[in-house]
Fold this protein.
Amino acid sequence: MAAEIKVPSLGESVTEATVAKWLKHPGEPVAVDEPIAELETDKITLEVYAPAAGTLAEILAEGGANVPVGAVLGRITEAVTGDLAQTAPHPAPLPASGEREGPAKREGEGQLALERSGPAVRKLIEETGLDTGEIAPTGPGGRITKADVLIARAPAPPSPPTAPAGEREVRVRMTRLRRRIAERLKAAQNAAAMLTTFNEIDMTEAMALRERHRDAFEKKHGVRLGFMSIFVKAAIVALKELPPVNAEIDGDHIVYKNHYDIGVAVGTEQGLVVPVVRDADRMSFAEIEQTIAALARKARDGKLTIEDLSGGTFTITNGGVYGSLMSTPILNPPQSGILGMHKIERRPVAVSEKVEIRPMMYVALSYDHRIVDGREAVTFLVRIKECVEEPSRILFDV
């Protein structure tokens, strides 16, 4: 008896997917609920699981084929008896006891490299929250350089296809996700009256706050205290005071949102995705950091769901993790605003009639001028600046 492998439900408004690849070949045994294929939609990549145990008899939709929900991808000849009908594939054996010491050994080597490195590099590692065991030192004497840190914290780019000998160009079909990103970005430029306004933030107080409470925060909540939770909280303060930035246009109506679902842009090998922190206004700093960390892990592992990516009211993107000093972010439709964070750069600034070196960050707000006026956009960024430069404003709601 043959069991059909069908395209599962892909979520609201998604009716079609592309077969990214098959994880099994015809003639190979499969276990019930074992991943056997990957589908790519406009938003996510998801696995298709075997509906029964047996042997993959045939593939009806090859890699690259577009398939609607419910379409038959292939068939499995069900096993009559045997372990396949009862169990999934056995997990890989644990490494030998000597191999288990590898991570600890790497951690010790990373700590030694950190101690050899300069104070600027140690501070950068502290700010990025990287594990020293994940950083490959290339400096003299086993020191970690700034470039090593930047490489370690940036997601590895996908390997370009290998060109056949003598070929000067390689043509590769865009993934469905990449096509969707291109369509949405172009649609945002075509549909919205998009403008960008800028400001700069003195990060001295925010950095001091994080330094004072970093260890206690991580010990209690199991997550590092980053700048993103501070900016999310600051954005919510500003959004409540300036509702048009949290609104959207629907036909000839403006829809004002009284909930604050903040999208946080995450770069992955497949492209940029924006998972949503729902009801962020009801969350503590720790809950925001924990949620963002969990969503970022799911994004890197390709396990985001449609629910994780839908329904945001405002977006924050941080180009600073890649070293960007200033940029103009593009709106994430149908939202009316997106906040761009950038690299923290120590610069001379005038403070109380004297020049001091301060850690400064440029911030940018791109907005839809159809419903957000310039006065509101500028005021929004000023409010962000006030809250980040003096975080106690967020706590006391002033």
Observations:
- The domain at 2-85 is CATH 2.40.50.100 (OB fold (Dihydrolipoamide Acetyltransferase, E2P)).
- The first strand starts at residue 2 and ends at 6.
- The chain is about 30% helix and 25% strand.
- The two ends are 69 Å apart (CA to CA).
